[in-house]
């Protein structure tokens, strides 16, 4: 039985497996520039964040209808359930779809249909987090937030993703102020390829409650001290870091050092179809590569639920934490 866990850093578009991409392409009459699923898998070799993003956006062309988004989310949830996920907070990128003529309503209703059945079908509770593309203008993010207003009953929070360098968090100050006014929870990618200063800015200017990635906080000891003191969760994605060359090999990933420093680290899959593993695979990989102790694995599982946005359902969080306490992590 896999470790019970929450997944807090997962882009639903990044769960598009080659097989589903081809199936949706056929259903929608879209031609993909790859001969078959093998040729597509070959293309999943990236040199950095940008080379991944180019393919990630290109493949989205197959997602057209609400049903496509339902199928995408349902496929993720089925895999996540097999990997021990009890709770998933799922990112989506409305601007990338809007730019292709797919309105946010289609995306949210499509994803929502899968999430509505997630508990019954897969035993997973869910939240939806709408991400803004940081390499697009702030005005576009604000327009997206405006367009999302009819669907806020389905959206728990906002996030910030895509190409980081040159797009500091402060660019989105007003958008996050408006999100806060609307009662939305706030997270942001920071310190993945961008500097430690972006992590600080995400906290101070955007008021985020979690940092997605945050790897480069390690370059600033006073920031690390603050993240420990304020118990700011970091949603780390070790397999993604290796694939996108943020670290050379998994054995050199600082996760273990981060846990030893007292950081509230969590382990997540980011874009599992592209990065070679879902979150259970990621747990296994870091356990082996970093020789994590049973207590460190338990801490990671506990952190995932403690860092989740389950404040509206504390009884559920307690149930999940009890499962972690009862789990045998080995000796
Ligand atoms: Zn991410």
Concise overview:
This protein has 331 residues and is of the alpha/beta class. The chain is built from 17 helices and 8 strands.
Distance between the termini: 16 Å
Strand line-up in the sheet with most strands:
1-2-3-4-5-6-7-8
User: What's the overall average pLDDT, rounded?
Assistant: 96
Could you give the count of β-strands? Answer: 8
Strand content: 5-15%
What's the CATH topology name?
TIM Barrel
CATH domain class = Alpha Beta
The main pleated sheet reads as:
8 strands, parallel
Each distinct ligand: zinc ion
According to CATH, the homologous superfamily is Metal-dependent hydrolases
CATH architecture type: Alpha-Beta Barrel
User: Number of folding domains?
Assistant: 1
| SS field, number of helical segments | 17
H-E order: EHHHHEHHHEHEHEHEHEHHEHHHH
Shape: globular
Radius of gyration: 19 Å
Structural class: alpha/beta
**Helix fraction?**
40-55%
List segments where confidence is low: pLDDT < 50 over at least 5 consecutive residues: none
Molecular structure report:
The protein has 331 residues and is α/β, with parallel strands linked by helices. It has a single domain, classed as TIM Barrel. The protein is 49% helix and 14% strand. It has 17 helices and eight strands. The protein has helices at 18-28, 37-43, 49-59, 66-82, 94-98, 104-116, 118-122, 138-148, 173-181, 196-204, 221-229, 238-243, 255-260, 272-275, 279-290, 294-306, 314-326; strands spanning 5-11, 85-92, 125-133, 157-161, 185-190, 210-213, 233-236, 264-267. The protein has an eight-stranded parallel beta sheet with strand order 1-2-3-4-5-6-7-8. Helix 11 (221-229) links the parallel strand 6 (210-213) and strand 7. Helix 4 packs parallel to helix 6 (104-116), helix 8 (138-148) runs parallel beside helix 9 (173-181) and helix 16 (294-306) runs antiparallel to helix 17 (314-326). The chain is globular. The mean pLDDT is 96. It binds zinc ion. The site of zinc ion has 6 residues, from strand 1.
């Amino acid at each position: 039985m896999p470790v019970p866990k929450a997944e807090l850093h997962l882009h639903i578009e990044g769960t598009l497996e080659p097989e589903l991409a081809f199936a949706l392409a056929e259903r929608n009459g879209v031609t993909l520039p790859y001969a078959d699923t093998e040729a597509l898998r070959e293309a999943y070799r990236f040199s950095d964040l940008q080379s991944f993003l180019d393919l990630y956006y290109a493949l989205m062309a197959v997602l057209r209808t609400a049903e496509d988004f339902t199928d995408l989310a349902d496929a993720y949830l089925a895999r996540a359930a097999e990997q021990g996920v009890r709770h998933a907070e799922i990112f989506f990128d409305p601007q990338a779809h809007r730019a292709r003529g797919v309105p946010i309503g289609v995306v949210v209703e499509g994803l929502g249909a899968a999430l509505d059945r997630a508990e019954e079908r897969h035993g997973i509770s869910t939240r939806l987090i709408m991400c803004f593309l940081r390499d697009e203008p702030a005005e576009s993010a604000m327009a997206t937030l405006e367009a999302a207003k009819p669907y806020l009953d389905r959206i728990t929070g906002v996030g910030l993703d895509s190409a980081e360098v040159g797009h500091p968090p402060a660019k989105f100050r007003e958008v996050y102020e408006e999100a806060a006014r609307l009662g939305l929870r706030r997270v942001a990618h920071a310190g993945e390829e961008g500097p430690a200063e972006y992590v600080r800015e995400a906290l101070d200017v955007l008021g985020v409650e979690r940092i997605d990635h945050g790897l480069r906080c390690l370059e600033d000891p006073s920031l690390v001290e603050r993240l420990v003191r304020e118990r700011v969760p970091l949603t780390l994605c070790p397999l993604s870091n290796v694939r996108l060359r943020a670290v050379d090999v998994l054995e050199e990933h600082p996760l273990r050092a981060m846990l030893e420093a007292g950081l509230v680290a969590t382990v997540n899959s980011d874009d599992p179809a592209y990065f070679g593993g879902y979150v259970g695979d990621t747990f296994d990989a870091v356990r082996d590569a970093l020789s994590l102790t049973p207590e460190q694995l338990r801490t990671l599982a506990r952190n995932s639920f403690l860092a989740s946005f389950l404040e509206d359902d504390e009884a559920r969080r307690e149930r999940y934490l009890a499962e972690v306490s009862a789990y045998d992590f080995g000796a």
